[in-house]
Specification:
Number of strands: 7
Radius of gyration: 19 Å
Distance between the termini: 22 Å
Strand content: 5-15%
Number of domains: 2
Order of helices and strands: EHHEHEHHHHHHEHEHEEH
Oligomer: single chain
Helix content: 40-55%
Length: about 325
């Protein structure tokens, strides 16, 4: 475990009605992780926020963070936190409160439920991409990929994960990626609405978290995968809309945020300062020289792998890797 102040980033959990998926952990593994990190290092979220704002964080200070407002987090992780007297940051994109589902999580559920393996999904996706944008275009672009260096800051990604993300992020872009995935979902007889049902918590649950001492933070309104590529006006709309929706739900203005998919630029940071955000979180531990709007985070999967290497207790049901 790193000895500098940072957050631990969580996304997916399994247990009860929530099926195991790539990168998910169960309640016991979550509890074991907290013990491994050392319960005493984990600050209440509001205390961590106050120390970050006053530049008084200690090297050993850690906080828990949850991205995307997923119902599995609320159902599986929250009871463990209540038992241990812990609070965390919950970073909420708000389009789902307006009945508009974030494609990122819908697409994840599609690949987890409609394919026998991740490799099978990757193959089907690449084939559909070749059909949509042309075989030669995809082949020429993939020839540029250096598997050893692309996304090397995320050691839990396999070569197949890196190839898929290079195709999605660097070749296709968000519009063509969305087109291809929507075509695949239709071919499988599925719909965005059916796949998105019950994936996220609702306004009452967000309010309950806030009242229970868990700071609710920004995560953009629609959760673009590449915020840094958006023009400043669109970035401003994403975060101002996000802040307004959360203010309506919780009755207070958010002071904290996390960068979706770790994508941001100088304009993003200026916009966040403009709307009153005091602390922001990255999605990795790479930067040594970080600002209050770029606090580092360790992905939980790195800690789980370290626990298993060290022989610490963890659930045999832990699924490898994570999905972003």
């Amino acid at each position: 475990m790193a000895m500098r102040p940072h957050g631990i980033m969580f996304h997916h959990f399994h247990g009860g009605s929530h099926s195991a998926s790539q990168g998910s952990i169960d309640a016991q593994t979550f509890a074991d992780l907290i013990e491994y990190v050392e319960r005493g290092r984990i600050l209440p979220a509001h205390e961590w926020l106050g120390r970050a704002e006053s530049d008084s964080l200690r090297d050993e200070d850690v906080c828990l963070t949850f991205d995307d407002a997923l119902s599995c987090q609320y159902d599986v992780a929250l009871p463990v936190m209540r038992d241990l007297g812990l609070t965390g940051f919950w970073f909420v994109h708000t389009s789902m409160l307006d009945g508009e589902y974030s494609r990122l999580e819908v697409y994840r559920k599609f690949r987890e439920t409609c394919f026998d393996s991740l490799i099978q999904y990757y193959g089907a996706f690449e084939e559909q991409a070749r059909n949509t944008v042309g075989c030669q275009t995809v082949s020429n672009a993939l020839d540029q990929l250096d598997i050893g260096t692309y996304l090397s800051e995320y050691p839990f990604y396999t070569p197949a994960d890196r190839r898929f993300r290079f195709l999605r992020n660097e070749i296709l872009g968000e519009a063509r990626y969305t087109q291809i995935m929507d075509e695949m979902i239709e071919l499988f007889g599925q719909s965005i609405e059916s796949l998105g049902k019950d994936l996220w918590i609702d306004a009452d649950q967000i309010r309950s978290l806030s009242e229970g001492g868990h700071p609710i933070g920004l995560h953009s309104h629609t959760h673009p995968v590449a915020v840094a590529e958006l023009p400043p006006d669109r970035q401003r709309w994403e975060y101002k809309t996000n802040a307004q929706r959360l203010r309506t739900v919780t009755g207070s203005s958010p002071r904290v945020m996390a960068h979706p998919c770790n994508s941001y630029n100088t304009e993003t940071l200026e916009i966040l300062e403009e709307i009153g955000i005091a602390v922001g979180f990255r999605a990795n531990m790479v930067e040594d020289d970080w600002s209050r709007l770029e606090c580092p985070r360790e992905d939980h999967s790195n800690i789980v792998r370290e626990m298993q290497t060290c022989g610490s207790p963890s659930s045999p049901e832990t699924k490898p890797a994570t999905s972003r």
